[in-house]
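Section 3.1: Structural characterization of target chains.
Under the original work plan, the team committed to producing a structural model for every single-chain target entering the pipeline before any wet-lab resources were allocated. The record below documents one such target. The sequence was received from the expression subgroup and is listed exactly as submitted; it comprises 398 residues.
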Amino acid sequence: MSDAPAWDVVVVGGGIVGVSTAMALLEGGRTSVCVVESEGRLAAHQTGHNSGVIHSGLYYRPGSLKARNCVAGRTALLEFCDRHDVPYEVCGKLVVATSREQIPALDELERRGRANGLDGIRRLRTGELTELEPHAAGVGGLWVPQTGIVDYTGVTEAFGTVVRERGGEIRLHARVTGVQRRASELVVETTAGAVRTRFLVNCSGLQSDRVARLCGLRPGVRIVPFRGEYCDLTPDAAQLVRNLIYPVPDPSFPFLGVHLTRMIGGGVEAGPNAVLALRREGYSRASFSLRDALATISYPGFWRLARRYWKMAFAEQWRSLSRSAFVRSIQRLVPEIRFDQVRRGGAGVRAQALGRDGALLDDFRIERAPQMVHVLNAPSPAATASISIGRAIAATVE
């Protein structure tokens, strides 16, 4: 082997955060950057299976990493899409309170949105909802004009083009199998051969805790996969939804609930629910991996989580099995949508970091180690905030 490492920085993971980080490293003056991705294409997992929403920053605690990166990242994302001709639309969304009990939570959303700098959000009374969404039903709402839609696979591919144009390399079919330290360099072993580097950035999403352990770390969290299943509306039902309609999220549950999203490529999608997945990269109810299932159920934090949320977990599982239950969730927002206008669609898997105490990590989790940085939790709005997150990670690389 040569005395000089082959690469200055190797980024593990070809999702939107990994490729954005590689782009930020090259834009910041690094001249030798390589992305290694286990699949045969970029954005194969979380990035390529999400709903394509450009988030506004409404939900996040003011001052949190989520809030700061979402607001800054949204602006950077739209500027990037304009420069690189990536189609998007800032269409706005309506958050609907379907009962009086949800009004305090709607008040808190409005407070957070204003604290996060969302000018133009507007509180709506019952009769005002139909001015924006004629078929929505509720006792009140919040209009958020900054929300938009985009194809994040297309965004990631555009990031990849910039990486290659700036001299970076993207290696596909290169799953990381081991990491060894040799003097001043790291040797990253992959299924496509070994790669030598001075610095490693772990952005491997659903496998991030495993890659961290391959690097000799004890990350202190475990990735527990949650599958989010979607349904598609038939064209006649899609006409009942102008843009995006969201419920008021349950503050005791870490997911937003079933919502309606107009897609940038056409059509309207409803979902997702949130059910435990028995395979980290499993997109159907039949998907199963003994290794992944054992990794979840053998973790003490999982059982602490299960004791805390078992009622909600049962309800989500029932909504997964019963299309009628799923449709009823949609009808709370738009009562006119009928059962026969809803078709089962695709699914995504969320890489949720879970602590040993059973706490679901809500904010981004980034850990440093000698010659390494590990992104161990990058939940929504990671896609929206990807440029901002990538720049923040790049700034930590020495």
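The domain at 1-91+147-220+363-398 is CATH 3.50.50.60 (FAD/NAD(P)-binding domain).
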